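Render Leucine-rich repeat-containing protein in 3D.
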Amino acid sequence: MDSNVRSDGWYFVFVMLIMVGLIGKSIHGQIDGAPMSKTEQEGLYYAIQGFVGKWWNGSDLYPDPCGWTPIQGVTCDVFDGFWYVTDLRIGQIHDNSLPCHPNLEFRPHLFQLKHLKSLSFFNCIISPSHGPVTIQSANWDALSSTIESVEFRANPGLTGQIPTSFGNLKRLQSLVLIENGFSGGLPGSIGDLTHLKRLVLSDNLLTGKIPDSYGYLSELLIMDLSRNSLSGTLPLTFGGLTSLLKFDLSRNQLEGEIPSEISYMKNLTLLDLSNNKISGELTFPIQEMGSLEELILSSNPISGDLMNLNWENLHGLMVLDLSNMRLTGGIPEVISSLENLRFLGLNDNNLTGNLSPKLAELADLNALYVNGNNLTGDLKFPREFYGKMGRRFGAWNNSNLCFSVATMPANIRPFGVKVCSEVPS
């Protein structure tokens, strides 16, 4: 046998022995060692007791909560040879998740978990009938050097203000507070979270103005403050959110005009300002926002002429909802060149003129609403278009609009539109 082959063979065996030894040592250490420090384990157990009740003591867990019998909703990692909790999820996330106690409390032990990166509560704090549950006084500063994600979802019994101390969580990348009972104003300190990428505070009871400081979150990708009672105007500082992809402020009480600085959001794919009190003219340079896929401004007293905007630059648009506004003029034929358009809502405005049959050439269009306007003339869409759209084609309440194919089957005729011969001259 060649000496090189023998040498390589022995080297391979030698390496394998080392690997087996290391693996054996790792397994032996996991079984016989102390995988989690006593301080960390007690902190975790007492914290969970505060959430689910004193009946739980973890006595059925062996050898530790991160080893062979882990706690549902607890994720760990190894630091310096010991297990530490990195992710804690409380609430009805899985069928076998631990149920929350009606008198849930945030014990100080939670904030002793020195490597905690993610904390979430889902469908946990259901009703304030047993007394309000707040998180304002909790020691959030203790997590400032580790925590990256905080989420409270579907906890209507969680009341009080959003803690201002959240602004001290300097490593925070995701703050999600959805469908809770939070009230009061938005903490300006959140604007200090320079690494924040996701800010979702939707469907709460929040009031007051949006702080200017929120426009300094230069790394933010998602901002959703929808379904609250926020008031005032849009901060001019929002022009600094140049990384933003999704921007949703719908269903609030915001007013004033849309600032032109919004157009600096060159990467924006969703802009939803619907159901507010925003006014002014539809003249802000949306034609510069070439990445837009969804533009939703419906149910605002915004006026303007659609003919004055350069729609051809918004070639990626899939959803365009400008319904229930104060728009005038005609419907530009250039909209029919938006090849990706799936939803077009222009209903309940003061639009006039004809409806271009070229809209039927949009292959992905599955909903078109122009009802409640002053459109006139003959609808010249092919039968296939009416059959495809059904009731998703809304053209009713346009008294001078008609269709000319009297032999069209009743089940595909445009609802609420007369045959042209029935229209008074």
